[in-house]
UniProtKB/TrEMBL annotation:
Subunit structure: Homodimer.
InterPro entries cross-referenced by the UniProt entry: ADH-like_C (IPR013149), ADH-like_N (IPR013154), ADH_Zn_CS (IPR002328), ER (IPR020843), GroES-like_sf (IPR011032), NAD(P)-bd_dom_sf (IPR036291), SDH-like (IPR045306)
One Pfam family per UniProt: ADH_N
Domain annotation Enoyl reductase (ER): ranges: 22-359
Record's keyword terms, sorted: Metal-binding, NAD, Oxidoreductase, Zinc
Keyword Cytoplasm: no
Organism whose genome encodes this protein: Elaeis guineensis var. tenera
Protein name: Sorbitol dehydrogenase
Cofactor: Zn(2+)
SUPFAM superfamilies with a match to the protein in the record: GroES-like, NAD(P)-binding Rossmann-fold domains
Family membership noted in the UniProt record: Belongs to the zinc-containing alcohol dehydrogenase family.
Amino acid sequence: MGKGGEGSGDGKEENMAAWLVSVNTLKIQPYQLPPLGPRDVRVRMKAVGICGSDVQYLKRMSSAHFVVKEPMVIGHECAGVIEEVGSEVKSLAVGDRVALEPGISCSRCKYCKGGRYNLCQEMKFFATPPVHGSLANQVVHPAELCFKLPDNVSLEEGAMCEPLSVGVHACRRAGVGPETNVLIMGAGPIGLVTMFAARAFGASKIVITDVNDHRLSVAKSLGADAIVKVSTNMEGVDEEVIQIQKAMGADIDLTIDCAGFSKTMSTALNATRAGGRVCLVGMGHHDLTVPLTPAAAREVDIVGVFRYKDTWPLCIEFLRTGKIDVKPLITHRFGFSQEEVEEAFEVSARGRDAIKVMFNL
């Protein structure tokens, strides 16, 4: 995975991929796959979603501290059908429908050995430079990171396991459970899947905030107990905290910030009860100015989230049993042509009524 390059030359069907070549420029070009290792599988991509980080790479050639320095295949939310298996693969077979976990850890470092492989410093993650992504006809990936989908779970839902994993990991880190009152900052795609996960983990009441009326109405229709419209104005924090606490109607045990701005974290810290916890998921700003001292005086814990670990089996089980339904989040679908790829990213970047934009290959 991620070791391929441009071109083919092997006489077989030419593998095409969406390459990020410069700011605001994506081109469908040949993508040569790496050799199939004994523990690898070759997967024909069938569903690939667009993530906010994909849009950031397109607009800025960077996301957080990751910088694209040479052409890179984009995409990491994906599912497909296995077309070839390595000689040592026993758990999967040709024709199996699978969801792919996009990060390959080293398996040797202290984080991997300690069970926190998402923090591995040698992680090779789809579409995180310089590693190529999965918006391609085919990819090669370790079999252990390909999870078989039940018959009643579609390939699109399989691709949605990636963003859903962020919500599941956040709920684990935050400690969401029965009788927990949860505040979620941000009703974008990650805020919505976090809401789904919190409910599946047993949260008794969920309030969600956003600056956008449409996103709030979607959140309400999908199960939020209450919604609160907020602003980007820092001076409005105190008043909005009162509104949020009134909407909850009880102590806010946990707040999960899926936006990651100074305003949202300040609101989260002030709204959460003494002895509660705030979980930071979003990375809207690199540096935040927040009221840490008052939060510390009330013993409000702060935990961070980076991607996820060991989430695919639980996500698939939630989908299989119907405990979580991600289908309403897929608002736009596109094929895999140059014109459609460009249009899909424009729709995703524009936002408005778009939640999850999905490619059907």
